[in-house]
Amino acid sequence: MFDGIREDIASVFDRDPAARNTFEVLTNYPGLHAVLLHRLAHWLWRQNAKWLGRSVSTFSRWLTGIEIHPGATIGRRFFIDHGMGVVVGETAEIGDDVTLYHGVTLGGTSWNKGKRHPTLGSGVVVGAGAKVLGPITLGDNSRVGSNAVVTKNVPSDATAVGIPGRIIKKRDPATIKCEEKRRIAMAKKMGFDAYGMTEDMPDPIVQSINAMLDHMHAVDAKVDGMCGALRALGSDFCDQKLPELEAEHLEDNAEEIVT
Q: How many Å from the N-terminal Cα to the C-terminal Cα in the chain?
């Protein structure tokens, strides 16, 4: 149990650059509170203490603004960022390393009993305000863009955007070029990729961000080359430390651009 809690806490640090320390995460992250309370509610639900499980779920909704039915199945390292308005239905199934942003709904399209909510594979990212509806499947490492409405299956490694959700591009990870891998890693570090904004999306803002990331990488390469030349001449100029970037400032700027 404690190993699972440690993994949930570690997932916050992995996916939120604003997280400073464990105490802050434990006391001020409603997404983490909702996940931990759901794990208790789900355990009670499986022990047939359904009223008590629903009561824990209701308390969690009151405390965090996040509604997760105690019957939903959630994997390891599940992360809800910001979280307000997130709804996860009873028969939803969520894999490992999944990320949801505020306003996401994993809902149903029928009042019939049985499986009526989505199944999310491992590594899925669902952007802010997106609605994933019905007993559909989102494959491993798929993405759903912000405010999309998805009612059909999304293949693994694919991106769905729009209303209704459409697959705009399916990528084979084995064919991604080294430059694109660096761009993806830098975008994730800066906080843009986490909002479901990828180079696959036909969005001029995203294209501008990608161009800036490419430019930043080219500038870094030039600076490294010049520093190597200066060191060869005996200069220690490049040994001076650069001022540190505040992670929360990067996140705030990312949110302003996205919204």
A: 37
CA geometry: angle 86, 116, 159, nearest 5 deg: 60
The residue type at 182: R
Residues 6+ apart with CB under 8 A from 51: none
Q: What is this structure's pTM?
A: 0.64
> In the prediction, which pLDDT does 10 show?
83
Rounded CA gap, 73 and 88, in Å?
Answer: 10
Give the residue ranges of the chain where pLDDT is below 50: 194-195, 199, 254-259
CA distances from 120 to 59, 97, 157 (A): 25, 10, 12
* C-alpha 190, offset from chain centre: 13
What's the mean pLDDT when you consider all of the chain?
81
The sheet that has 143-144: what strands, in order across it?
79-81, 99-101, 125-126, 143-144, 158-161, 166-170
Residue 205: Cβ within 10 Å count: 12
CA gap 228, 231 in Å, rounded: 5
The confidence score (pLDDT) of residue 22 equals: 85
Between CA 188 and CA 191 the distance in angstroms is 5
The stretches of the chain forming alpha helices (DSSP H) are 2-15, 22-28, 30-46, 50-64, 178-190, 204-232, 247-258
- Neighbouring CB atoms inside 10 A of 25's CB total 19
- Cα gap 100→80, rounded to integer Å: 5
